[in-house]
Every structure is written in C-alpha cells, then in structure tokens.
Write a structure and sequence with these properties.
Layout: E1 15-19, E2 23-33, E3 40-46, E4 56-59, E5 63-66, H1 75-84, H2 89-98, H3 103-106
Antiparallel strand pairs: 1-2, 2-3, 4-5
Length: 111
C-alpha cells in the first residue's frame, strides 16, 4: 500500500515575483503520484533559467521534494534522507521547516 510518504510537496503554489516592477514572473512546481502504478514524478516550469537542477528532487522507493521561492537546495537531499530513514513526508517537512530561519519566504504547505 502506498503512503503519503511518496507525496511530499514543500511548495506547489505559484511563486510570483515582479521583475523591475513591470510584470509578474511565475514559477510552478508539482509532485505527483499515480497510486495505481506507483510512478512518481516532479516537475518545474519557470521564467528563470536552470531551476530544474534546483527545485525537483525524487528518489525511487522513497519520495519526492519540490522547493521553490528562494530555493533552499538542501531541502531536496535532506528531505529524501529523512524519508528514507522512515519519517513520513509531513514529519520530514516539519523538521526541515523547524531548522530553516528563512521559512517565512519558502513555506507554502499542501498535503
């Protein structure tokens, strides 16, 4: 049986930044699980170049993490490590946020 351990989303909401006060720039990320097949994926779309190497993190049999809006890259590998050690997605998320002085600019929780 699949658990919520495989559905770990740190940030899925759109992040809107105004570039030079002229126009909004959006970034979207998603983590999804097909409960029938067990396939898991993470993706990101952004105006900003090269976010694909920073935002989505996934490991087969463990879970996935997406971090955006002032990315803290450590969330990816640290979140996957916590889940591989047996923490639920929610527990891993709470632990990461508790240690993050910049939580206010990163935390948008969607379970």
């Amino acid at each position: 049986m699949l658990t919520h351990k495989f559905f770990f989303i740190l940030l899925i909401a759109a992040s809107v930044t105004f570039v030079q006060g002229i126009r909004p720039v959006n970034t979207y990320s998603i983590v999804a699980l097909d409960e029938e097949t067990g396939k898991l994926g993470a993706a990101v779309q952004s105006h900003w170049f090269s976010v694909g190497s920073l935002v989505p993190w996934a490991k087969a049999g463990v879970g996935a993490v997406a971090t955006q809006s002032f990315v803290k890259v450590e969330y990816g590998p640290d979140g996957l490590t916590l889940m591989s050690e047996g923490e639920t997605a929610h527990e891993a998320l709470e632990e990461l946020l508790a240690q993050d002085e910049g939580e206010a600019v990163r935390a948008s929780r969607h379970d």
